[in-house]
Amino acid sequence: MTATGLATENLCKSFGALPVASDINFQLAPGARHALIGPNGAGKTSFVNLVTGVLRPSSGRILLDGEDITRLSQAARVKRGLVRTFQISALFRRLPLIENVTLAIAEREGTADGLVRPAGAHRALIDEAYALLQTLGLATDALKPVNELAYGRQRLADIAVSLGLKPKVLLLDEPAAGVPSGETGAIIDMIEGLPSDIAFLIIEHDMDLVFRLAHRITVLVQGRVLTEGSPQEIAADAEVRQVYLGERAVR
Amino acid sequence: MALASDIPVAAGLDAFARRHRLHAYETLPWILAIAGYFVFPDYLALGAQILGTILFALSLDLVLGYAGIITLGHAAFFGTGAYTAGILAANGWGEPLSGLLAAGLAAGAVGLISGAIILRTTGLTLLMQTLMVAAMLSELANKATRITGGADGLQGMDVWPILGLFRFDLFGRTAYIYCAVVLLIGLIIVRAIVHSPFGRSLIGIRENMLRMHAVGAPVARRKLIAYTISAALAGVSGALIAQTAQFVGLGVLGLERSGTVLIMLIIGGIGQLYGAFIGVTLYMIAQDRFAEIDPVYWYFWIGLFMIIVVLFARGGVLGLAERARRYWRKAS
Q1: What is the CA radius of gyration of chain A?
Q2: Could you list the residue range(s) of the whole structural domain that residue B174 is in?
Q3: Which of A158, A244, B19, B59 is the most exposed place for a label (fewest CB within 10 A)?
Q4: pLDDT per residue over B42-52, tens digit each?
Q5: The pTM is what?
Q6: A114 touches chain B (CB under 8 A)
Q7: Given CB atoms, is A79 within the 8 Å cutoff of chain B?
Q8: What's the mean per-residue pLDDT of chain B?
Q9: Number of neighbouring beta carbons within 10 Å of residue B288
Q10: Is A52 on the interface with B (CB under 8 A)?
Q11: Which chain B residues are Cβ-neighbours of A115 within 8 angstroms?
Q12: Residue A3 touches partner B, C-beta closer than 8 Å
């Protein structure tokens, strides 16, 4: 077992009689480009919620860089570099994009508890947020409230907020959800351009996107890991095709 | 490398970073307050009530308008402050400034303790719990007749001159200036908070609590701190009203007071700092006028006004003003 990166050991979670995660053993090495796929209800988002601390596992462990983080709060995990994005854009809707990112940076820098100095006086944080938006091609929208942005731009903004936290591990929960297929290009470009020291796990239904971005794929079915492999191996796997595409596609 | 399109954005960034600076319009309430003192010498007692109530509405705005904590029980803190100052003054300690301080501390403590329990919930559940906290305190004040005077109210308050110099007079002159100064201090505090990184994070919690968790914010702690500060300020406003009226009745803890201050804030505009000033002033002057013109049905007119605001002016008077400003900008 590697000591660095994200790992889960025998991770289990049930809601009453309904298991959403059973014995998930999963590894995400530093800098990994990994996808988690599976049919609806396979437990993909529950897995993200378990790893990020929204849900408490029934049993099993979650490790980040060898440290057991199973009992840590969401905030403590974020401080250690474990960051997520949301399936449905979760932004501060009436605030300008620059402030969306600045809020995240202020939390990372630990200035957000300050009561006396005005937020605007922390100019370095605002400049950092702006520089980040520039590298992501979002600078022109910096001053617009995010609810005035097109949905595709909001999806990019969602990732921008998470990048403001300087994550080591980024969990991308369906980054292209709700975006017309013609507009997913910008999202793919942004994810492809992520610094190589950020490991990401992408959960996605859009197979085009998965096969373009991921170097490894894990298939989750009914809370269990069905198989894991390279994109070629997964594409060729008969069992995956059966559960994922239906029996007819196999014949 | 600066692109041509970056230049207006850079200017906008500067403006964004300077949002906390004082605007010219922010002197307006104080010009009006000073003018009011000279123009309406017969209404200074009402004026003092308005100024004290603005502080109460301002404290509510901090939790409701900024942190998005929904409450129908803010009178719990107002009343705690009013009774603290009142009981002190009725039992031989009428020094007003330490009375305010004690009221703020007592109300803040009630806010901290009740908040630690009820702020785990949100929405309707939270609304019910804030109501219950106020109801419990109200019942406590009702039963503790020997200390509070119960349903008859607290009698025999003797408030000493402010700083030993300024005696509370029959015309409300001292009361008016006293309330104005305390409100100014309260505004400076709330204004600093809402422009601080802490205040911006409260707005983040209001806009999207889920995401604030996901960016690593200690959401529960932030909400509790905001709630405690707000409770303390509400307590100070309750003490102000008690000291200037020299009487405390059970109504200070009542649902009507919690509801009314909420209505005032909605009329003025939530989450905009000066909504409290506009809403309270409009409401209390309207109440005073309507009560004179139509003593029986004045609440009907307030209700009608409220419906109009909710239907046509969401964001209150300040929301309307903002829309008018944008319209005017587009037209010119």
Answers
A1: 19
A2: 27-254+268-275
A3: B19
A4: 999 999 999 99
A5: 0.93
A6: yes
A7: yes
A8: 93
A9: 15
A10: yes
A11: 192-193, 196, 198-199
A12: no
